[in-house]
Amino acid sequence: MLKHGLLRPAIIGGLLLHLAVAVGLSFIPLFDVLGFERAFVTSLLAAPTTAMGAISLCLWAQKREQDPPSTKALAWVSTILGLAMLIPTVVAGFLVERSSTPCSPAEGLGFLALSGGTAAIFGAGLGLSAAATIKAHRSPRLLVWLILLAALGSALWRLYSQPQIFAFSIPFGYWPGSLYDEEVRVGRALVAERGLALAIGLALLSFAVSFTDAAAARLASPLRHKGALLLFLLSCASAVGLWRAGESLGFDQDRATIERALARHVETPHFQLFVDPSISEEKLTRLVEDHELRYAQHVRFFGRGLSERVKSYVYRDSAQKKRLMGAGGTQVSRPWAGEFHIDGFDTPHPIMKHELAHVFAGSFGEGILKSPAKLGVMVNLTLIEGLAVAADWPAKGLTIHEWARAMRALKLAPDIRTSLYPAGFWAVSSSRAYTIAGSFIRHLIDTRGVPKFMEAYAKNDLEAVYGTSLDALATEWEATIDALPLAKESLDMAEHRFRSPSIFQRVCAHTTANLVSQGYSRLSAGDLDGAAALLERAHNYDPSRVDVLLTLAKAFAAKGRLEDAERIAAKARDVPGMTARGRAMAIELLADLDWKARRPDEARAKLHGILDLHLAEESDRLMQVKLRALDEPPEVSAALRSYLAQEIPTERAVAVLSELSHSRRDDVVVRYLYAKLLENVGASLAAATEARAAIDLGLPTPELSKEARLIEARSLLLAGKRAEAGALFQALTSTASPAALRIEAADWAERARAGGE
Fold first, then answer.
1. Distance CA 503, CA 494 (A)
2. Is 666 exposed, middle or buried (0-12, 13-18, 19+ CB in 10 A)?
3. Most buried pick, 292, 336, 539, 676, via CB within 10 A?
4. Burial environment of residue 66 by CB neighbours within 10 A (0 to 12, 13 to 18, 19 or more)
5. How many Å apart are CA 153 and CA 181, to the nearest integer?
6. Which pLDDT score, from 0 to 100, does residue 65 have?
7. C-alpha angle with apex 308: 302 to 312, nearest 5 degrees?
8. pLDDT tens, 645-676?
9. Cα(610)–Cα(246) distance, integer angstroms
10. Mean pLDDT of 499-519
11. Burial 450-481 (b: 16+ CB within 10 A, else e)
């Protein structure tokens, strides 16, 4: 009887829509496999299509004068119909995985069942309840659409008004936050929130069965279906319980949740800081100084300050930030709200200046997002992130312009002309997109001034403000960058840093990230063989992740399983297409294993081979230290090897190097390594003393000498000797090479001056 009702246009149309989307997603990278993204898109359709199908069935039943189907039958058919509409995407996803590399279809099915399945059940209950209680001429469809749009609007408003970048929606499922956080797994919060969606859906279905006569569109006695009445009461109780526990379960968090967790509140002239209470007084003082210094630097760069205090949320670590606001491996700024969210207490904070730049840029922006955007919401990420990089201007190894130069030489640089559009920006890795955008925009600012660029930023139109074509601007910048000198080590560094593709181009990106996370957890628990299975599988998905093999090999070496360690390190070395620096990292580990196995000649040959490549100054320093350590007396060499291989805990390392430093006062390598270790553990004054001793003894290479001078200067600054530190940093700004080191030294010099004012 009901089979005739299944041919209603709303039902056929819903099924065709699911089929079209399932096929269309098969041609979009990341969305093609049976994973989170496919489940997310399908879930957006599940509640509306199922609800419209349920209403159509109910209205069909109400038109039947003889033997209309029962409400219970309509409930079953509507629910099964909604779940059946998910089948096309399951089939399409499986077919894609079968024709390419299979990722984790079981996990994809889990996301689809939790989000799409519960959304379909909710849609069936919503549609049936509306059609069973409202006469057709009063338009149950209108009511359902109003409810769905209200739910969507509520989720979007929450994303806009609250710090959390994840979103839970009863009808539409779950969005985890930043695309840059590749680890996406089914967690407690998702299970609980979808449990709430299921409970509400079952409550609506059982309400319709118990309290209505759908065929007559009227209320009826609930005692006719005692089982359905019991299900209604249980579902309502479950929904209320889950809803009330939403904050503790992790799906109903807001700003107040974060501010209670980050209970250390500090107000400065330009900031309101909310910091995890585990921070020490000393680190909090440095963090406050760091904030105010970065504010002053941005005032100088942008030419004006901000009218209100900036809210800075500083989390203990990425795990806490992920749990409370959704961003794990990424830092987040919200310019329209005048706030940013970062993790870690280190100073100088590596990301804070970049995130604060977004807030400053927001003071120039227009629209609801205070950012360059089309239609108010389609933001121009190249201008947004490029300006933050240009204002931050980090210099780690190379300057931003030098990184861009190396990328262009390696043919890894995206075309800035296409990067200004979303498809171009997301087509490459974030490191490439950010760096090229930052270099381009810094060039515009350096040649035409900040005010002109900020006008273009506000209008989201470079050509109109600069009065020339984008192609002309890009060509001018390219000529400037290509004229910069280029060293071979710059190419090696850039190849290693920028070789990784965009998340949309990686094979099984989420599966790989999840496997790595699970593998590292197994390592922490001491399960080496379990970790090996997970991490080697992750490497098979993404061979560029040589780091996971090296981490695994080091863990085996630390447990004395040298054969396993050598096998895995050799596998990392022999990965086809590996960058020169990646291969050198594997060879270095093999040298360390030779050293541990008392094969010093083999170790020395490998380390010399890496040093001859001159991959980077940091690499050269480490090879130089290891080669000198190999030449130490056997007992000293063994102790230094254990420290350099990170096989002993920090407390033990301090004791070992302290003893060596006191017994070998003229050993320049021991004094240098002890200085680095003391700086890392916060013993600043002692670190400065050891660094000065190493300098006076005469470090064997310019690279080690420069690093020792930086250790001495940084340590003196942290020990409160600002004048002495400032003088050392100032000397480095005029004498140090390369340019990145001069920029770093100048930043430290300003820090020393600012703290003394």
1. 19
2. exposed
3. 539
4. exposed
5. 25
6. 66
7. 85
8. 888 999 999 999 999 999 999 999 999 999 99
9. 54
10. 81
11. beebbebbbebebeebbeeeeeebbeebbebb
Structure-token pair, residue 329: 């491996």
Nearby residues of 717 by Cβ (< 8 Å), 6 or more positions away: 725, 726, 729, 748, 751, 752, 755
What is the per-residue DSSP string for 536-572? HHHHHH-TT-HHHHHHHHHHHHHTT-HHHHHHHHHHH
Distance in angstroms (rounded) separating the CA atoms of residues 106 and 744: 48
Instruction: Identify the DSSP state of 414.
Output: P
Contact status, residue 265 vs residue 274, Cβ threshold 8 Å: yes
Structure tokens at 529: 């063989």
User: Per-residue confidence at 38, pLDDT binned at 50, 70, 90?
Assistant: very high
Beta bridge partners of residue 168, listed in sequence order? 174
| Cα–Cα distance measured from residue 567 to residue 200, given in angstroms and rounded to the nearest whole number | 54
CA atoms within 13 A on the CB side of 41: 23
DSSP notation for 348-400: S-TTHHHHHHHHHHHTT--TTTTS-EETTTEE-HHHHHHHHHHHH---BSB-H
- Of 124, 35, 131, 20, residue with least CA distance to 76: 124
- Length of the chain as a residue count: 757
